[in-house]
Amino acid sequence: MAKSCRNLLTALLLLCFGAVGNAAPKKAVVAKPFLKKPTAPKSSPTPKAPPAPKASPAPLAPGELPLVAEAAALVNANSGALIYQKNAESVHYPASATKILTALIIIEEGDLDKMVTVELADTKVEPSALEIKPGEQFPRNHLLYALLLKSANDVAMCLARDNAGSVAAFAEKMNRRAEQLGAENSHFTNPHGLHDPHHFTTAHDLSRIAVAAMKNQLLREIVATPEAWLLKGEQFVLLRNHNKLLWRFAGCTGMKTGFTRAAQQVLVSSAIRQGQEVISVVMHTNSPGIWNDSSTLLLYGFERLGIPPPAE
After folding, report:
1. Is 151 designated active site?
2. Residue of 86, 96, 173, 294 marked catalytic
3. Residue 154: what are its φ and ψ, rounded to 5°?
4. What letter would DSSP give residue 122?
5. Residue 21 falls within a domain, yes or no?
6. Computed over its alpha carbons, how large is the radius of gyration of the chain?
7. N or C: which end of the chain has fewer CB within 10 A?
8. For the segment 233-263, what is each residue's pLDDT rounded down to a tens digit?
9. Is residue 47 in a domain?
10. Which entry of 86, 128, 150, 151 is annotated as an active-site residue?
11. Alpha carbons 271 and 250: distance in angstroms, whole number
């Protein structure tokens, strides 16, 4: 009996262990491939330092105007007397404001109906050009519009060479005329104002030249002209005045813009209200400053003359 029980227990144990040993192995779990390229977990953003406070502009001195220009002059157009100045005697490059003096000399020497023939040397100049061609002919007075409205550098070369025989000889005339006008801190080497380290003036000197220019009736008419058409060959070319104050400032009567990298923005401007005219000069300013600075000066000039702003 006892033996039978032991045999039965043994059989049961063998059966149990055999079942466990022969059990089907569990299926291995295989990881699926990524459907998208895995990316590293995003780290918490590093907090940014608060922006440094902008430096406040230096407070203006009593009577000082908020000008961006490095140099400026505001004068009475009738007398030439200074109304306001900022570094007006410091030397700067005039860029194309030079053409005011160029035009003044050409007009003062007359014979403005003369036909001018373009030569090859006249075309050897940087852009801002009318693209005149050797052999083309234009009346002098027509070229003056291209000079002052379109600010054509090749036209400046053509007028100077036609007037004096060479650009160098014309530059001598420019310096003599500038000295006669009291612009004694200036020196000119060309008729267009493209950069030359020896070609310079001051805001006050440029205002002196502008005062003389605005007393010349033809020059006044030209710089006050918004646009004109020039016959070039068989086509008409539009000459549009670069001076935006003609549209933006009530009473603006001219005059001339200028820009080179060395000079930055330059503007000589004039305006008349109630018979009183003022001329402003801004030198080495920026693109909005050329208009804002000039408007500020012109308004200040009328205020000093006791002329109220126009009604809205």
Report:
1. yes
2. 96
3. -70, -30
4. G
5. no
6. 39
7. C
8. 889 999 999 999 999 999 999 999 999 999 9
9. no
10. 151
11. 8
